[in-house]
Structures are given as C-alpha cells and as structure tokens.
Design a protein that fits this description.
A hairpin with a 3-residue loop joins strand 2 and strand 3. The protein has two domains: 114 residues, Arc Repressor Mutant, subunit A, CATH 1.10.10; 137 residues, Four Helix Bundle (Hemerythrin (Met), subunit A). It has a three-stranded antiparallel β-sheet with strand order 1-3-2. By secondary structure, it is mainly alpha-helical. The protein is globular and about 55 Å long. Helix 1 packs across helix 3, helix 2 crosses helix 3 and helix 9 packs antiparallel against helix 10. Keywords: DNA-binding, Plasmid, Transcription, Transcription regulation. GO terms for molecular function: DNA binding; DNA-binding transcription factor activity. It holds the Pfam family FCD.
Length: 269
C-alpha cells in the first residue's frame, strides 16, 4: 500500500518532499518536522505573537502557514500539549497555557517527550506488554470510527516507512511512529499521552530492547508487518472490533517473541 505524499513548501526551514528513490532521507525529515514546527510555535508564543487571543491558529491554518500536512501539525501540537504548553479544547480551539512562557519547557528531546518522570524501578516486561496490549487494542477500536482521510494517509505512510526499514536501529522508532499515528487518529490527546508513556516504559526495559532486535530479524519481521497491515485494513474499513482483535493478535505474537528474547543477552544502553 503506497502512502500518499503531500508536497511541502520551503517555509520555516522545511524543504520540499524528496522525489521517489530518496525515501530514507525524506522519511527522516518527516519524522523531525513536527519538532521543528513545535520549536517554532513555542518561540512565537514566547515572543507574544498570540498573547492577545490566548490561542494558536487552527490546525488547518497552521498547516498552510508551515506548508505541511495537518498530520505533522497535529504531531507538533501533541508534543506541546504533553509538555503542558498548550491545551486543545474540542470545538473551542488550541489554548496557550501559562507554562508555555516558562523557559524550562524544552521541545528538543530526541522523540519530543520527556522520560525523566517515569521510574525505571520494578519494570516488569510481561506486565508492561499486557497493559500496552489493552491500551493499544482500545485505541485501535476507537480510531476505526474516528479517523479522517488525512489520518489514514499518515498511518499508511508510517507503515510503508516501517516496511522499508533497512537498518536495525531504524526499526523501533519507525514502529513507534506507526503506533503513534494510530493513537493520534483517535483525536483524543489523553490516549496519545498514555500511549507515549507506555512506549517510554518499553524503551527503558532491557528485555523489551532485546525484543525489538528479535522482531526486526528474519523470524518475526514478516509476521509483524502482516499484523500491522491487517490492522490497517480493518481501520480503513471502519471495523472497530476487527481492529481490536487484529491488534490483540499482534500483541500475542509479541508475547511469543518476548519469551524467546528473554534467553538472549540483555542489550544495555
């Protein structure tokens, strides 16, 4: 399934999308674009540009201003909301919070989300996978009935990027991005926030870092991609129950892989 790629204009330091054949470079730019925009918005907030209204422009207006798709703007707004800089109120707009003016707010972390407040102690990988399974399955069910065409295009593109992964170190961030797009398509930032917390916990677990290496290997790689494609198909059809059970089946496969990965030497870092 080929993702739909929108052309980008050269605004705010963003360049046009690369032509076919240079997907790896373009994909890396796309994954970082929301951070560039998030930083730009924070600087504009602090300059007082939006002080009179107390709100940011709409997603549509921001997409036109920055010359990107609305999905990229949504990523940037989610990042700012998790940081406490803005708050989206359905039907009312995107409100700027007092914390946005505090210079301690930083949007330059590698994934846009801070992990300093998540304790590593007593991290049980089996418990974490169980909890993440229930969360992701419910998110998939909700997304099936709430996603827009733009959301669907973003999910398709994220899966295509994952399928085209050519190096071990690229697998985990691209897998995370695919799941992140599904969460964002709920249009409920609380689900996005909870999903990000679960992924941060996974990244802190040596056992689950081992799991990522195993999933990228020959034995499970095709299984993971087939699971994701099946879930995407149910989402496209608007079948919430199908999306739920497809995601559930995916996590059952992860549990099988986790059992095998526990016999591998732990990956530190």
């Amino acid at each position: 399934m080929n993702p739909r790629v929108a052309s980008r204009h050269s605004r705010e330091g963003l360049t046009d999308a690369e032509p076919a054949g240079t997907e790896e470079t373009w994909s890396e730019k796309d994954l970082r674009a929301y951070q560039v925009i998030g930083k730009s918005l924070l600087e504009r907030i602090r300059s007082g540009e939006f002080r009179s209204s107390g709100k940011l422009p709409t997603e549509r207006d921001l997409a036109e201003i920055y010359g990107v798709g609305r999905a990229v703007i949504r990523d940037a707004l989610v990042m700012l909301e998790v940081k406490g800089a803005v708050q989206s109120r359905q039907g009312s707009g995107i409100y700027i919070m007092p914390q946005a003016y505090a210079h301690g707010v930083n949007v330059e972390a590698s994934d846009g989300f801070s992990t300093s407040d998540l304790a590593v102690a007593q991290l049980n990988p089996q418990h974490l996978i169980d909890a993440h399974q229930w969360l992701d399955c419910q998110i998939a069910r909700i997304t099936a009935t709430r996603h827009s065409e733009d959301d669907m295009a973003s999910m398709e593109k994220a899966l295509q990027m994952l399928v085209n992964t050519s190096a071990d170190e690229e697998y985990e961030p691209r897998n995370h991005q695919f799941h992140r797009q599904i969460a964002q398509a709920t249009h409920n930032y609380e689900f996005v926030f909870m999903s990000e917390q679960a992924w941060q916990r996974r990244q802190q677990s040596p056992a689950l870092r081992n799991l990522s290496v195993l999933l990228y290997g020959d034995r499970f790689r095709s299984v993971v991609f087939a699971d994701h494609q099946r879930t995407l198909d149910f989402l496209h059809r608007g079948d919430g129950d199908g999306a739920f059970y497809s995601m559930w089946h995916h996590y059952e496969n992860l549990k099988t892989a986790l059992t095998l990965s526990e016999s591998l030497p732990a990956i530190q870092g």
